[in-house]
Specification:
six-stranded mixed sheet, 9 helices, alpha/beta, 240 residues
Length: 240
Amino acid sequence: MSVRINNLTISYDHRPAVHHLDMLINQGDWLAIVGPNGAGKSTLLNALAGVVTEYEGDIEGLYPESIAYLPQQSQLDKSFPITVYDLVSTGLWNELGFSRGLNANQHNKCEEALEAVGLHGFENRLIGSLSSGQLQRSLFARVLIQDQHIILLDEPFNAIDTKTLIDLTSIIKKWHENNRTVIMVTHDLDYVREHCPKSLLLARECIDFGVTKSVLTEKNLRHARALSEAFDTHAVWCAG
Protein backbone atom coordinates (compact mmCIF):
# COMPACT_ATOMS: atom_id res chain seq x y z
CA MET A 1 0.00 0.00 0.00
CA SER A 2 2.32 2.72 -1.27
CA VAL A 3 1.36 6.39 -1.60
CA ARG A 4 2.36 8.17 -4.80
CA ILE A 5 2.20 11.95 -5.15
CA ASN A 6 2.26 13.21 -8.73
CA ASN A 7 2.98 16.87 -9.55
CA LEU A 8 0.99 18.09 -6.55
CA THR A 9 0.38 21.83 -6.26
CA ILE A 10 -1.81 23.34 -3.53
CA SER A 11 -2.46 27.07 -3.61
CA TYR A 12 -4.09 29.68 -1.37
CA ASP A 13 -5.00 33.12 -2.74
CA HIS A 14 -3.15 32.28 -5.95
CA ARG A 15 0.08 31.59 -4.06
CA PRO A 16 1.62 28.12 -3.91
CA ALA A 17 1.63 26.43 -0.51
CA VAL A 18 2.95 23.18 -2.01
CA HIS A 19 4.57 23.39 -5.40
CA HIS A 20 4.95 20.62 -8.04
CA LEU A 21 5.67 17.84 -5.55
CA ASP A 22 6.51 14.31 -6.75
CA MET A 23 7.31 11.50 -4.34
CA LEU A 24 6.70 7.84 -3.53
CA ILE A 25 6.06 6.79 0.08
CA ASN A 26 6.45 3.04 0.44
CA GLN A 27 4.36 0.88 2.71
CA GLY A 28 5.95 0.73 6.15
CA ASP A 29 7.89 3.99 5.81
CA TRP A 30 8.26 6.26 8.84
CA LEU A 31 8.53 9.62 7.11
CA ALA A 32 9.07 13.01 8.71
CA ILE A 33 7.93 16.12 6.84
CA VAL A 34 10.14 19.01 7.95
CA GLY A 35 10.87 22.54 6.83
CA PRO A 36 10.70 26.21 7.85
CA ASN A 37 7.52 27.83 9.15
CA GLY A 38 5.12 28.39 6.27
CA ALA A 39 6.81 25.73 4.15
CA GLY A 40 3.56 23.86 3.42
CA LYS A 41 4.08 20.93 5.81
CA SER A 42 0.64 20.86 7.43
CA THR A 43 -1.00 21.81 4.14
CA LEU A 44 0.52 18.72 2.54
CA LEU A 45 -0.54 16.50 5.44
CA ASN A 46 -4.08 17.91 5.28
CA ALA A 47 -4.22 17.05 1.59
CA LEU A 48 -3.11 13.49 2.37
CA ALA A 49 -5.79 13.32 5.09
CA GLY A 50 -8.51 14.56 2.74
CA VAL A 51 -9.04 17.79 4.69
CA VAL A 52 -7.74 19.83 1.75
CA THR A 53 -9.45 18.67 -1.44
CA GLU A 54 -8.68 21.41 -3.95
CA TYR A 55 -5.31 20.92 -5.60
CA GLU A 56 -3.65 20.16 -8.90
CA GLY A 57 -1.96 16.83 -9.54
CA ASP A 58 -2.76 13.44 -8.05
CA ILE A 59 -2.46 11.53 -4.78
CA GLU A 60 -2.64 7.78 -5.34
CA GLY A 61 -2.98 4.99 -2.81
CA LEU A 62 -4.86 6.88 -0.09
CA TYR A 63 -8.42 5.99 0.85
CA PRO A 64 -10.50 7.28 3.79
CA GLU A 65 -10.93 3.78 5.19
CA SER A 66 -7.15 3.26 5.35
CA ILE A 67 -6.14 6.49 7.15
CA ALA A 68 -5.94 7.51 10.81
CA TYR A 69 -5.28 11.23 11.26
CA LEU A 70 -4.08 13.07 14.35
CA PRO A 71 -4.48 16.87 13.94
CA GLN A 72 -2.70 19.58 15.87
CA GLN A 73 -4.15 20.28 19.31
CA SER A 74 -4.80 23.87 18.25
CA GLN A 75 -7.52 22.58 15.93
CA LEU A 76 -9.49 21.13 18.85
CA ASP A 77 -12.08 22.98 20.92
CA LYS A 78 -10.98 22.04 24.42
CA SER A 79 -13.99 23.79 25.92
CA PHE A 80 -16.36 21.29 24.32
CA PRO A 81 -17.80 19.14 27.14
CA ILE A 82 -16.60 15.72 26.02
CA THR A 83 -14.91 13.10 28.17
CA VAL A 84 -11.66 11.32 27.39
CA TYR A 85 -13.55 8.09 26.77
CA ASP A 86 -15.99 9.74 24.36
CA LEU A 87 -13.14 11.44 22.50
CA VAL A 88 -11.34 8.13 22.07
CA SER A 89 -14.51 6.33 20.99
CA THR A 90 -14.98 8.78 18.10
CA GLY A 91 -12.18 6.83 16.45
CA LEU A 92 -14.83 4.17 15.82
CA TRP A 93 -16.98 6.61 13.86
CA ASN A 94 -16.94 4.51 10.68
CA GLU A 95 -18.33 1.56 12.62
CA LEU A 96 -20.80 3.47 14.81
CA GLY A 97 -22.33 6.22 12.67
CA PHE A 98 -24.77 8.56 14.42
CA SER A 99 -27.02 6.28 16.40
CA ARG A 100 -25.28 3.04 17.35
CA GLY A 101 -23.77 2.57 20.79
CA LEU A 102 -20.59 0.66 21.55
CA ASN A 103 -20.78 -3.09 21.84
CA ALA A 104 -18.63 -5.07 24.28
CA ASN A 105 -15.81 -5.58 21.80
CA GLN A 106 -15.67 -1.87 20.91
CA HIS A 107 -15.75 -0.93 24.58
CA ASN A 108 -12.79 -3.23 25.18
CA LYS A 109 -10.91 -1.58 22.29
CA CYS A 110 -11.34 1.83 23.93
CA GLU A 111 -10.22 0.52 27.32
CA GLU A 112 -7.17 -1.19 25.82
CA ALA A 113 -6.21 1.95 23.90
CA LEU A 114 -6.44 4.08 27.04
CA GLU A 115 -4.34 1.54 28.91
CA ALA A 116 -1.76 1.55 26.11
CA VAL A 117 -1.28 5.33 26.31
CA GLY A 118 -1.21 5.42 30.11
CA LEU A 119 -4.65 6.95 30.69
CA HIS A 120 -6.43 4.18 32.57
CA GLY A 121 -8.64 5.90 35.13
CA PHE A 122 -9.01 9.08 33.04
CA GLU A 123 -12.08 7.86 31.13
CA ASN A 124 -14.53 10.30 32.70
CA ARG A 125 -12.28 13.35 32.77
CA LEU A 126 -13.34 16.24 30.53
CA ILE A 127 -10.74 16.99 27.87
CA GLY A 128 -10.62 20.63 28.99
CA SER A 129 -9.16 19.50 32.32
CA LEU A 130 -6.24 17.64 30.75
CA SER A 131 -2.66 18.77 30.41
CA SER A 132 -1.22 19.00 26.89
CA GLY A 133 0.54 15.68 27.39
CA GLN A 134 -2.62 13.95 28.64
CA LEU A 135 -4.66 15.31 25.75
CA GLN A 136 -2.04 14.11 23.27
CA ARG A 137 -2.17 10.66 24.86
CA SER A 138 -5.96 10.73 24.36
CA LEU A 139 -5.54 11.59 20.69
CA PHE A 140 -3.04 8.77 20.24
CA ALA A 141 -5.55 6.39 21.84
CA ARG A 142 -8.12 7.56 19.31
CA VAL A 143 -5.67 6.74 16.51
CA LEU A 144 -4.90 3.35 18.05
CA ILE A 145 -8.49 2.12 17.95
CA GLN A 146 -8.84 3.13 14.30
CA ASP A 147 -6.30 0.40 13.52
CA GLN A 148 -5.40 1.76 10.08
CA HIS A 149 -2.53 1.04 7.71
CA ILE A 150 -1.58 4.71 7.16
CA ILE A 151 -1.15 7.07 10.12
CA LEU A 152 -0.86 10.84 9.68
CA LEU A 153 0.45 12.88 12.62
CA ASP A 154 0.54 16.69 12.61
CA GLU A 155 3.08 18.06 15.14
CA PRO A 156 2.43 15.20 17.58
CA PHE A 157 5.02 16.34 20.14
CA ASN A 158 4.25 20.02 20.66
CA ALA A 159 4.18 21.17 24.30
CA ILE A 160 4.41 17.73 25.89
CA ASP A 161 6.65 16.45 28.68
CA THR A 162 9.59 14.11 28.19
CA LYS A 163 7.80 11.06 29.63
CA THR A 164 4.89 11.52 27.22
CA LEU A 165 7.33 11.97 24.33
CA ILE A 166 9.04 8.68 25.18
CA ASP A 167 5.77 6.79 25.61
CA LEU A 168 4.23 8.07 22.36
CA THR A 169 7.44 7.40 20.45
CA SER A 170 7.21 3.80 21.65
CA ILE A 171 3.74 3.55 20.10
CA ILE A 172 4.99 4.94 16.78
CA LYS A 173 7.87 2.46 16.79
CA LYS A 174 5.37 -0.41 17.20
CA TRP A 175 3.38 0.89 14.22
CA HIS A 176 6.59 1.05 12.21
CA GLU A 177 7.61 -2.47 13.27
CA ASN A 178 4.19 -3.72 12.16
CA ASN A 179 4.77 -2.29 8.66
CA ARG A 180 2.29 0.56 9.01
CA THR A 181 3.07 3.77 7.17
CA VAL A 182 3.64 6.72 9.48
CA ILE A 183 3.82 10.23 8.01
CA MET A 184 4.42 12.98 10.54
CA VAL A 185 4.93 16.73 10.43
CA THR A 186 7.37 18.01 13.01
CA HIS A 187 9.74 20.92 13.60
CA ASP A 188 12.05 18.92 15.89
CA LEU A 189 15.05 18.06 13.71
CA ASP A 190 16.93 16.37 16.55
CA TYR A 191 14.01 14.00 17.04
CA VAL A 192 13.86 13.29 13.33
CA ARG A 193 17.57 12.54 13.13
CA GLU A 194 17.30 10.13 16.05
CA HIS A 195 14.11 8.29 15.14
CA CYS A 196 12.79 8.81 11.60
CA PRO A 197 14.42 6.73 8.83
CA LYS A 198 13.15 8.96 6.01
CA SER A 199 12.48 12.66 5.62
CA LEU A 200 10.97 15.14 3.21
CA LEU A 201 12.53 18.60 3.49
CA LEU A 202 9.90 20.98 2.18
CA ALA A 203 10.06 24.69 1.41
CA ARG A 204 6.82 24.74 -0.57
CA GLU A 205 8.74 22.65 -3.07
CA CYS A 206 10.81 19.57 -2.37
CA ILE A 207 14.36 20.41 -1.30
CA ASP A 208 15.26 16.77 -0.74
CA PHE A 209 13.57 13.46 -0.01
CA GLY A 210 15.02 10.17 1.15
CA VAL A 211 17.18 8.82 3.95
CA THR A 212 17.13 11.33 6.82
CA LYS A 213 20.91 11.57 7.20
CA SER A 214 21.25 12.55 3.55
CA VAL A 215 18.32 14.96 3.58
CA LEU A 216 18.99 16.98 6.73
CA THR A 217 22.35 18.40 5.75
CA GLU A 218 23.28 21.95 6.67
CA LYS A 219 23.43 22.84 2.99
CA ASN A 220 19.87 21.60 2.40
CA LEU A 221 18.57 23.34 5.52
CA ARG A 222 20.11 26.66 4.47
CA HIS A 223 18.61 26.28 1.01
CA ALA A 224 15.17 25.51 2.50
CA ARG A 225 15.27 28.62 4.69
CA ALA A 226 16.34 30.84 1.82
CA LEU A 227 13.76 29.43 -0.57
CA SER A 228 10.95 29.69 1.99
CA GLU A 229 11.77 33.35 2.61
CA ALA A 230 11.85 34.02 -1.13
CA PHE A 231 8.46 32.34 -1.58
CA ASP A 232 6.97 34.41 1.24
CA THR A 233 8.04 37.59 -0.48
CA HIS A 234 7.75 36.83 -4.17
CA ALA A 235 5.52 33.80 -4.69
CA VAL A 236 2.97 34.22 -7.48
CA TRP A 237 0.46 32.01 -9.21
CA CYS A 238 2.20 29.19 -11.04
CA ALA A 239 0.58 28.29 -14.36
CA GLY A 240 3.21 25.75 -15.38
